[in-house]
UniProtKB/TrEMBL annotation:
SUPFAM superfamilies on file: SNF-like
Similarity field: Belongs to the sodium:neurotransmitter symporter (SNF) (TC 2.A.22) family.
The keyword Hydrolase is annotated on this UniProt entry: no
GO MF annotations, alphabetized: amino-acid betaine transmembrane transporter activity; gamma-aminobutyric acid:sodium:chloride symporter activity; metal ion binding
GO terms, biological process: amino acid transport; sodium ion transmembrane transport
Subcellular location: Membrane
Top-level taxon of origin: Eukaryota
Pfam families given in the database record: SNF
Record NCBIfam families: Na_transp
Keyword Iron: no
Topological category with respect to the lipid bilayer: Multi-pass membrane protein
UniProt-recorded name of the protein: Transporter
Amino acid sequence: MTSSRNGKNDEIMELQEDTERGQWDGKFDFLMSMIAYAVGLGNVWRFPYLCYKNGGGTFLVAYSFFFVLAAVPIFVMEVSIGQYLQKGAMEMWRMCPLFKGVGIGNVVIAFMCIAYFCVIVSWAIFYMISSFNSTFPWETCNNWWNTVNCLSGNENATYVAALRQKLKLANQTTETSVEQFWEKRVLYQTDSIDEFGGIQWELLTIMFFAWLIIYFALWKGITSARKFVYFCALFPYFLIFVLLIRGLTLEGASTGISFYLTPNITKLADTTVWKDAGTQVFYSYGVGFGALIALGSHNKRDHNCFRDAVTMCFVNGSTSIIAGFAIFSILGHMSVIANKDIAEIVKPGVGLAFLAYPEVATRLPLKQLWAFLFFLMITILGLDSQVCMMEGLFTAMEDAFPILRRHKKIALGICCFGFFLLGIPMVTYSGVHWLNLFDQYGASGYALLFVVFFEVVGLSWGFGAEKIRGAIKSMTGIQLSNVWVLLWKFASPMTSFLLFVFCIVYFKPLHYAGTDKPYPTWATAFGFFLSSCSMISIPLYALYYLIFENRDLSFKERLIRGFRPSSINENNGTQRAEQMTFLPQNQ
């Protein structure tokens, strides 16, 4: 009786603790927060480019495959477990302590991504400010940053031919005014990652301003920032539809859409298509960062998280497809006006949006309006994703160190300022190279896939897929079919593992954007170090748990205990088996 009473008191204390973390008040608050987080720059630009690169409509086949087997099941799993346990990415693993390293990995990956997102926002704001000119600064070649090999696109054929012949003799090539504005004015870009050069003070100032916005959006908790969340979730859709309507009415729009959607069935035999589709799904839906778990933990226990999660998955995919129509209709217009193939306009790399769209904007009527709207959209998409990732990271830190919750404003301010300092190398003259390194090695690719694989295994096999289904039933009243159990236990982990193997087998060192020049060996080694920071935490913590925790037990008993809630009542020695996670609904 004493044990039961103690367990009941512990449950009540946990519920009281949960009320301190803040909960969504409105019916659509949680859904809007997920849209603000998961719908980002990857939907607006990366998806359309990958779709074009990998066979148009054929890419949608591979994308749909990973959408069904990986995105939806894992998305639902993360959101549901966050709501059910009312914990962040690290503390939720108390119900399966052997996998706590996964929570650490989630936090590290979010840390890597947060480090550079405000830098991208600062680029967008720089362009947004620059669009307030009758003549865009990237539109001509008579600025102080332009060189003799600059072409604006308005020169006659005779001049272009003569210039190219002259540069050929000097072993040089022409550059567009858009490229030179991006590299020589916005970034002050050096040729290699080890040439810091100096700090781009304008970007540093804008980045500081962006971090102030992040701080004030979160200082009372994300559940108190309803207006910010709603605005950031909905306003980009208004801009996307404005751009879509304008794009579809331009001459040559059908050419761009044809390039975007025309299927190339032979591409299905190319492993690169499947690798690109899979990694895009994981990155675009934001699984593995811990943010979805944190956002779900702010729900009331009877909220219909399953409905919201499935809705969000379809909203995310639809946004990517609609954005593709908007972007490629405009690119089709550009190809007709400039008499270029779309392949010459679409350029890969982190600066893709800052190269192609400014070139397109100069050709549009009311060009200042369209340029401003486009870069405003990128700014908002970057800010809302950053806010939600910061919430995921800080929630995990608050759960691990509850004292932070009592001094949230100060702790959050220190955290934001720390990330601002971490972003300074990315606004140096070699900053874009550093950002590429963090993006490719630290926040995506095989590091993300590795963490997601063990997260799915830990939840579906350690905690139990049947328990997750039971948790959803107890919270929402929805009885999921056995298909969901099969997806969680077999399809999703297998998909994650195969994608990880693909990334390893087909690994290629990172190259400087638009060149065949690889990053130096030391930079590649540092990239592997960034990846290992999240990956190594999983086996290291498992070893630590098996060696140092519960040393009075046999190895077999420790292993079994590692798959179960391990909170022990020290007074009477009895285990609170699963009391932490399975709280009665009437409590």
